[in-house]
Amino acid sequence: MENVTIKDIARALNLSTSTVSRALRGSYEINPETKRLVMEYAEKLNYRPNPIALSLKGSSSRAIGVIVPQIANYFFSQAINGIEAIAYNRGYHVIIFQTHESYEREVANVQQAMARKVDGLLISLSSETSDVNHLQDLLQRNLPLVQFDRVSEELNTTKVVADNYAGAFAATEHLIKSGRRRIAHLTIPRWMSITQERLAGYRAALEQYGIPFDENLVRYGTFGPDEALGMVDELLAQSPRPDAIFTASDRLALGALAALRQRHISIPDEMSIIGFTNLNVADLLSPSLSTVVQPAQEIGQAAAERLIELIERKHRAMPPNTVVIPSHLEVRESTRVASSTAS
After folding, report:
1. Are 222 and 189 within 8 A, CB to CB?
2. First vs last Cα of the chain: how many Å apart?
3. Most buried residue among 88, 213, 250, 258 by CB atoms closer than 10 A?
4. Looking at residue 150, what DSSP letter applies?
């Protein structure tokens, strides 16, 4: 099958080749309806730009660097799917790096991305990253940079995030409406943006329903294996002990679920549990796990779109802003109303 060209698309839609070219690049000069027609027709014909040919036209490498904490993490694997879908359609290669939650590896990844001469960088910060000077240096060198999911307010960049506050509020409110009153929160390092936003949503829901915030019910972890066991044991030692757990990640929720089973705590009769992310196995667990759905693929797509706009528009790009993608609550068996609290 012969490769489809811009000329083929232009001829079929009765447009100039320059109009089609600008529409495929997402140029602000082309009206949205024309862009839609061009993109739909290009997708129908399976048109793909030739990155090598495009790179020969200028100094662009037609490559985007993506730095994430861990590719095996379900959220990041889905975000990468979204990033690659957009990049591929726009004629960009994606080079993926992972930090394994290490600040030092993050710095090394940035240096490696620069050595590869990427046109721009998408990054989600490691759990150890509180110093962002290595990224400030990139901004001073005018490298297009977009943060997603885990972000730093110190960096004046576009940020693409889930609505962590609303998701945490909805999860906590659901537990309260299910009759729970001592709701524990298992979370991740204090300085991370997602930690602060989810904690704020949890606290706001408690306040709205007249339940005092209890610091003793909050446990901060890292991303170590099996750490939820110790956190759950500390909570169970309290008197009265919690009747529900809201975790800031499904990884922590899985750990808490296993720990409660080991301690013969019935879920949800004795303890409700709700997570955050929506692992692809959440509905297959026993009991199936209630969770806040974090729209990973949409976040990846939006982040890639904003980065390519920065790369291609240069000085005409929109000023930095924060794009918030809605999250929503998926209620399953792990927060079913307990027989003791049912009215």
Report:
1. yes
2. 66
3. 250
4. S
